[in-house]
């Protein structure tokens, strides 16, 4: 097995608040790994730390075997790990065309076959080139999230960090975007690390998951175990009861 992302005893401290407390997670290459836990448990902080966007005070992060230190200055790292956020409106620039937002990362990395990559990425997320010169406000929520996914793909990463990528969308659009993500993962042989508060989504998308509470990982289990109720922690059981998506699926 090849490990794509390894997070070992990672701590993130804001002032004197410990948002992440010796959390460890290991994600295999090609798998889709889920992170669940109550609000404030540190899920986004963990993704942000991997993306180099949170102040790591202790522990280690390795991506494809290489330890990340000062990773934000490392262009190769930026290309291999990309993040998709919950709110595509917040992550897209309101006054720039889709084209411009797709060109930008290519320009930063000095990539020359931009035209081909833009057309490919738009096609892959199910938006034709007709969307290329529109502005974010001229798109639906689902289309905006497709653009955010296209932008994450344009540098041809191997790992996507997905922070509640569909929870701002209507249920039917949510299913479309999840199917799209799954297809992209297969086609590009990507590794996903995905946060969702909806256990129905996580068990559908991910083979294994970690359960977080208070900045710690309190349980690791497979989706099959979760669905079958083979759960060690009461905390995890309570999350299951609280997750509407999961109730719907298991009712
Ligand atoms: N920049 C920051 N400064 C101070 N505290 C922060 C910062 N970012 C996060 N925190 C705190 O760290 C804790 C974990 O936050 P985080 O965003 O990781 O939670 P989460 O599990 O993603 O929750 P949610 O499900 O609501 O998105 C929270 O208590 C939050 O208030
Ligand atoms: Mg969060």
TrEMBL record:
GO cellular component: plasma membrane
Keyword Cell membrane set for record: yes
Pfam families: ABC_tran
Keywords, alphabetical: ATP-binding, Cell inner membrane, Cell membrane, Membrane, Nucleotide-binding, Translocase, Transport
Location(s), subcellular: Cell inner membrane; Membrane
E.C. numbers: 7.4.2.10
GO molecular function terms noted in the UniProt entry: ATP binding; ATP hydrolysis activity
Reactions this protein catalyses: glutathione(out) + ATP + H2O = glutathione(in) + ADP + phosphate + H(+)
Bilayer disposition of the protein: Peripheral membrane protein
Keyword Cell inner membrane among UniProt keywords: yes
Domain ABC transporter: 5-239
Gene3D superfamilies: P-loop containing nucleotide triphosphate hydrolases (3.40.50.300)
Biological process, per Gene Ontology: transmembrane transport
Functional note: Part of the ABC transporter complex GsiABCD involved in glutathione import. Responsible for energy coupling to the transport system.
Protein family according to the UniProt entry: Belongs to the ABC transporter superfamily. Glutathione importer (TC 3.A.1.5.11) family.
Subunit record text: The complex is composed of two ATP-binding proteins (GsiA), two transmembrane proteins (GsiC and GsiD) and a solute-binding protein (GsiB).
Official protein name in the record: Glutathione import ATP-binding protein GsiA
Native organism: Rhizobium fredii
């Amino acid at each position: 097995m090849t490990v794509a992302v390894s997070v070992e005893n990672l701590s993130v401290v804001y002032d004197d608040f410990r948002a992440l407390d010796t959390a460890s997670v290991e994600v295999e290459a090609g798998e889709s790994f889920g992170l669940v836990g109550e609000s404030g448990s540190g899920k986004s902080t963990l993704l942000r730390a991997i993306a180099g966007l949170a102040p790591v005070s202790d522990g280690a992060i390795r991506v494809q075997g290489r330890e990340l230190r000062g990773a934000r200055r490392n262009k190769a790292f930026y290309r291999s790990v990309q993040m998709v956020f919950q709110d595509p409106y917040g992550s897209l620039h309101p006054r720039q065309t889709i084209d411009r937002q797709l060109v930008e990362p290519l320009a930063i990395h000095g990539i020359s076959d931009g035209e081909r990559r833009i057309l490919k990425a738009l096609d892959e997320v199910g938006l034709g080139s007709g969307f290329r010169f529109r502005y974010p406000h001229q798109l639906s929520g689902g289309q905006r999230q497709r653009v955010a996914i296209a932008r994450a793909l344009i540098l041809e990463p191997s790992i996507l960090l997905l922070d509640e990528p569909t929870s701002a969308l209507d249920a039917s659009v949510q299913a479309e975007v999840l199917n799209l993500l799954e297809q992209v993962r297969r086609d590009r042989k990507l590794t996903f690390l995905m946060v969702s508060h909806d256990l129905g989504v996580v068990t559908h998308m991910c083979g294994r998951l970690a359960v977080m509470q208070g900045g710690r990982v309190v349980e690791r289990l497979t989706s099959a175990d979760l669905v079958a109720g083979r759960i060690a922690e009461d905390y995890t059981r309570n999350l299951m009861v609280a997750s509407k998506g999961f109730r719907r699926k298991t009712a």
